[in-house]
Amino acid sequence: MKQVTFIHAADLHLDSPMTGLKHIPEKIAKRLRESTFRSLNKIVNAAIQYNVDFLIVAGDLYDGEDRSLRAQSIFRKEMKRLADKGIPVYAVHGNHDHLNGTWVQIEMPKDFHTFSTEVEVKQIQVKSGAKVNIYGFSYPVRHVTEKKIDDYKREDSADYHIGILHGHDGGSSEHGKYAPFLLTDLISKNFDYWALGHIHKRSILNQEPPIIYSGNIQGRNRKETGEKGCYLVTLGDTGATYEFMNTADIIWDSVIIDGSEAITVEEILTLCYSEIEKHRVDGRGSIISLRLVNIQLEEIDIVNHNLYSEILDLLQEGEDDEESFVWITDIVIDDQIQTSREELRKKAGFYGDLFQTIDQYDEIHQTLSPLYEHNQARKFLEGLSKLEEEELLQKAETTLLRLLSAP
Ligand SMILES: [Mn+2]
After folding, report:
1. Which of 14, 100, 165, 203 maximizes the CB count within 10 A of its CB?
2. What is the Å distance from ligand 1's center to 134 Cα?
């Protein structure tokens, strides 16, 4: 009877710089830079459309502790749209936008509530007449090592109890800095819903009561794949219902194409194009890393004609002009040569030595130093991540094997 409806979002990371993508057309780069704002805009649209009782934001509203003025003013504009419809907002600050940063403070609409650095409870009476207690705290500094969960105490003055917690599930040392908790801690509080933030991959830790990481609202790099958004939640006499809504403006993904049926370059292209169309969604952009496996082409074609970089050029052509673009960032080839190290080892002892050298190679920095220490080049180069180093070695192996097998 007395129900309450709200949206749970977290990890907005507004104005995230979206670095790490090279050679991307300006139009798509610009769209990426705007994507966190567009996702927030859709969340606010949904809150208004469903006429929810309030919006919860479980931390990391801003990407940086300096909270750019632009991020703040766009955020305020969105919060104002909610205030105009009489929809309040309950937010905590997380490790990214902790309260020890320095920023120019701009005033938020009056129905925008943030939690202080100690766990506190705020009560709201919603349209149905239900009273809801909302509990939470904001990060005073970047790292919160205490188990803040011990400070959440249910106050029996309301019909529903909702906990907001920006923190890490489990006690692993790496994440011990982020208000660690155990699932059993949360369940024992006897709340009706836990709105979690901090982990960017959305996951439902518990069904009844729902304990949910809504994940971030927009993927920021190729590791943050798939749909991103928020949860629309209703609590009622018969329990809770919740539904995920995608609001991300750009989806990151990686796709594997099996080329074993393709004999010609034409056929490979056809496969790629049909995969691209499968990923095209109206009004949304996609950034995809393509992996081709079981390619049967003659190796000579590939080595001599720089084939895959030409294919990539073709696949990218015109995409930056599309509203619903599918941008292929790179093509990785897993051809037969690469997948059969064992076969090659049997063929000649030399291959065994080669693979061992590659596997144990630890001079990558030394090898790249003429480039990275170059007077001019170093100004423009960022260091390589571990993943990029591994990819570089993998590509080197593929190239070597191709050249060795060329007639
Ligand atoms: Mn975050």
Report:
1. 165
2. 21
Q: How far is the CA of 198 from the centre of ligand 1 (A)?
A: 4
Q: Could you give the C-alpha distances from 64 to 41, 263, 353, in angstroms and in order?
A: 20, 50, 47
Q: Are residues 37 and 166 in the same domain?
A: yes
Q: What spacing in Å lies between the alpha carbon of 61 and ligand 1's midpoint?
A: 8
What is the 116 CA–ligand 1 centroid distance (Å)? Answer: 19
What confidence score (pLDDT) does residue 11 get? 97
Q: Could you tell me the distance, in angstroms and rounded to a whole number, from the CA of residue 326 to the centre of ligand 1?
A: 26
Is 343 within a domain? no
Separation in Å, CA 304 to CA 105, 146, 255, 318, 395: 59, 60, 26, 26, 16
pLDDT at site 172: 55
Which token pair is 1? 């009877």
Cα–Cα distance measured from residue 326 to residue 275, given in angstroms and rounded to the nearest whole number: 10
pLDDT score for 22: 73
Q: Ligand 1 centroid to 166 CA: how many Å? A: 9
Q: How far is the CA of 281 from the centre of ligand 1 (A)?
A: 26
Cα 81 to ligand 1 centroid, rounded to whole Å: 24
Query: For the chain, how many structural domains are there in total?
Result: 3
Residue ranges in the chain modelled with pLDDT below 70:
1, 20, 171-175, 298-305, 335-340, 405-407
Considering the domain boundaries, does residue 270 fall inside one?
yes
Q: Is the pTM of this model over 0.85?
A: no
Q: Convert the pLDDT of each residue in 29-84 to its tens digit.
A: 999 999 999 999 999 999 999 999 999 999 999 998 888 899 999 999 999 999 99
257 and 239 share a domain? no
| Rounded Cα distance, 352 and 340, in Å | 12
Give 138 Cα–ligand 1 centroid separation in angstroms: 13
Query: How many Cα neighbours within 13 Å face the side chain of 341?
Result: 11
Same domain, yes or no: 56 and 156: yes
